[in-house]
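Re: the 492-residue chain
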Amino acid sequence: MKFKFFAIVAIVSAVTFSACDETTDTIGSSLTDNMDMLEVNTDTFNVTSKSFVVDKVLARNTTGYLGKIRDPETGNYITGNFMAQFGTLEEYELPEKDSIVSVDVNGDVIADSCHIRLFYTDFYGDSLATMNMTAYEMSKPMEENQKYYSNFNPKSDYVDGNGMQINKTYSLTDLSVSDADRADESSYTPNIKINLNKPYTDKDGNTYNNFGTYIMRKYYENPDYFRNSYNFIHNVCPGFYFEMNDGLGSMAYISVSQLNIYFRYKNDSTYVGTSTFAGTEEVLQTTNIVNDGDAIANLANDNTCTYLKTPSGIFTELQLPVEEVRRGHENDTLNTAKLVLTRINNNNHGEYALDVPTTLLMIPKDSLDSFFENEDIVDYQKSFIATYDGASSSSSNYNTYTFNNISGMISYMYNAKTAGLADNPNWLNEHPDWDKVIVIPVTVTTNSSSQIVKVVHDMSLTSTKLVGGSNNPNAPITLSVVYSKFNHEDGR
C-alpha cells in the first residue's frame, strides 16, 4: 500500500523532513524556494527469510567458554574448550634475587605455590554438576596474526604431549569455600582453581619443584623475557588449553584467566609476594566449540520459522526487496527503510531454557567472514545493530528486534547491482547473493561515550525462533519505506 502527501514551503521558512533513531543520522534538507513542493511517499514490501546453518565462527573473544551441556531444544551435546595466553605488564619486575627468602637446599629461588584461576561472572546450567577437564601446557604460542575459528582444536598443532598436563575435577560452586565467603561479592568472584604445584620439567630437560619456580628462575635468567607480553609468551609460557574430559550440566563463561605465583621475600620484614599474569585483550584467547551438525541441520529444516542459535549454530538469512523498492523511484530519495523481526515465544519453559540473543548484527551475506576477520565496526551503511525488545509488554515493539533504518543497505546493494551490470552483463549470475543479508547474534563492546568499538560473535548459549521461513504461517516480514522527491510547478 502507498501513501502520499505534499509539503508546501514558504519563502521565509525552512522545513526539514527527517527520520532518525538512536543509530541513524537525521535525514532531510531545508527548503527555501516557495515554488518547490516536497512529495513524500510510503510503501511496504515483503521480505523472505530462511535459516542459515554455520559450522564455525571466528573465535576471537575475551570470554572463554568451558563445559559441556545438553541443549534442551535439540538434545544435542555442546562442548566448550578454550585456550588462554597470559600477559605481563610492561617492564615487569620481581624483587631483587637476593631478597627472596623462598629457596631450595642449593640456595636457588623457588616459588611456594602456583596456580591458575579461571574466573567466571556467568554460567549456564547446574553449578553443582561434577565436571572434569585437563589443562594442557601449549608447546608453542598461537600467533595473533592468524585467524582461528571455533572448530579449530589447538591440540592438533600446539600441544605436543611433552608439556605439563593437569587433570581437574570441579563444580562451579566451590564447596571448599564457605557459604559466607561465597556470598561476599566484594571479595569473592567464582572461579575454577587449577594447582600447578607438581614437579615440572621444561623443554630443555630442567626440572623444578613447581611451575612457579620455573617462571621465577626464567625471570632471573633473563628479565628481558618479561619486558612485554610478546616476549613472555614466546620465551616463557605460550599459554594453556583447557579441554573437557567428562561431566555434563554446566558451561562457565570465563571472563578473566590468571596465572598466580606466590613466594616470600625480605624487605625489613618477611613478606608474601604474589606475581600475577593475566589473560587480557592484549593476548589471544580462543574457544573451541564441539557441536552436533546433524541436530543443528534438522532444526534449520523447519520452514515455518527461522532460527538464531549460538554458539556456531544457526543465523537467519533475509532477501531484501531491493529491486522492488527502487522500481519507479529511481530518482527519489530513499529516506527510511524499517525492518522488524518478531520473535516466536519458546515453548520450553524449563529451568535450563536457553537465553534469547540480545544483540543482532545485519551485514551483506558476502561479508560474513570478512566483517569479523577485518575487525570491522558497525557503520549503519552496510552493517546495522538491533537489540532485543522484550523487557516490557507495554512496549509497542515488544518481543522484537527492530532495524529502524537500513536505507543505506538498500542503496548500497542497488548501486552495486547497477554498477556491476554496466561493466558485466553476467553480473547477476556471478553474484547470486547480491541482495541477501545475514542476521547474526553478536556481542558488542562500547566506550565511555557509548560508541561501539568492537563486534564479535556471541559464543554464549542462546536460541530463539523468528517469524519467517518459506512456510511462514504468521504475518509476513515487511520492509516499511519512506521516499521523498521535489516537485516543481513549472514542470522543471
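Residues 51 and 316 are 5 Å apart (CA to CA).
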